[in-house]
């Protein structure tokens, strides 16, 4: 039971790699003295519900490098019933580099819109009270992002705090998209029923890879409310960065660059 994390994790990953068509169910107990380090090579790997728990850990840091793609179970009910896919608990200093995580959540969302009885993961009312802080994004497509699927929903996202984030050449450092439509199928030109409110961006700084560094795209039907920018300093090459807002309401305080469109 008490195994050094690295070898245990290696075992778990080996299991995943050797059983590409199988689901790996892993509970990884971190018993580590050194920071844990996990590498996922190129390829697609099925991964079932997985927990990384740092409770008994001297060093609670964990680094994951992903060159490939981790894929959730085909049957959306598996994760839907579990309520989550990959969980980190009591870790401090989590770094994730590269890679793609595909939870295959589409079926769950389709179920939710259909009115059938769906797994608990699909019936939760919303997302509330989330803090993301002290994060560095380097060369990524998105920085701090909230996206909601352009489908009817009674859900909500509220009470989100993004704090102390550094952006290094990030395409969308700050973005809310209420019209997210994967593959542009079944939802173009629709709006999301998920209501977004009470989102705070505090001390977000660094460089944007595109001129529009702050994007709030919300719908006329369900505008985003109580969006707050506080001490934001995003630059774009040698030109002024811009922000664009659609149906977003809120306020800005402290130094906010690009100037707020809220
Ligand atoms: C979210 O935070 C608010 C304000 O602190 C609190 O009233 C509410 O109970 C919290 N909700 C949950 C689900 O924790
Ligand atoms: C904003 O960031 C730029 C680039 O990092 C820096 O030169 C500038 O001093 C910052 N402005 C403030 C007021 O902190």
TrEMBL record:
GO biological process terms, semicolon-separated: carbohydrate metabolic process; cell wall organization
UniProtKB keywords: Cell wall, Cell wall biogenesis/degradation, Glycosidase, Hydrolase, Lyase, Secreted, Signal
Pfam family of the protein (one): Glyco_hydro_28
GO molecular function, one term: lyase activity
Xref: InterPro entries: Glyco_hydro_28 (IPR000743), Pectin_lyas_fold (IPR012334), Pectin_lyase_fold/virulence (IPR011050)
Residues annotated as signal peptide: 1-24
UniProt-annotated location(s): Secreted, Cell wall
Entries under PANTHER family matching the protein: PTHR31375
Family: Belongs to the glycosyl hydrolase 28 family.
Record-given protein name: Pectin lyase-like superfamily protein
């Amino acid at each position: 039971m008490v195994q050094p994390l690295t070898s245990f994790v290696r075992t778990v990953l080996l299991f995943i790699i050797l059983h590409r068509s199988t689901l790996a169910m892993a509970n990884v107990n971190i018993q580590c003295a050194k920071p844990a380090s996990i590498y996922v090579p190129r390829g697609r790997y099925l991964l079932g519900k997985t927990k990384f728990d740092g409770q008994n850990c001297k060093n609670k840091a964990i680094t994951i490098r992903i060159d490939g793609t981790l894929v959730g179970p085909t049957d959306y009910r598996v994760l839907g019933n579990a309520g989550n896919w990959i969980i980190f608990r009591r870790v401090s200093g989590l770094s994730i580099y590269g890679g793609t995580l595909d939870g295959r959540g589409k079926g769950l969302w389709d179920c939710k819109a259909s009115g059938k009885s769906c797994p608990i993961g699909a019936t939760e009312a919303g997302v509330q009270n989330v803090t993301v802080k002290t994060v560095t994004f380097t060369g990524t497509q998105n920085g701090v992002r909230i996206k909601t699927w352009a489908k009817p929903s009674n859900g909500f996202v509220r009470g989100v705090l993004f704090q102390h984030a550094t952006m290094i050449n990030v395409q969308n450092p700050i973005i809310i998209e209420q019209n997210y439509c994967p593959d542009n199928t079944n939802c173009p030109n629709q709006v999301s029923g998920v209501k977004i409110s009470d989102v705070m961006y505090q001390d977000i700084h660094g460089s944007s890879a595109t001129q529009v560094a702050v994007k709030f795209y919300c719908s006329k039907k369900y505008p985003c409310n109580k969006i707050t920018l506080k001490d934001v300093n995003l630059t774009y090459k040698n030109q002024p960065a811009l922000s664009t807002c659609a149906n977003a309401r809120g306020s800005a305080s402290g130094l906010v660059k690009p100037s707020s469109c809220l």
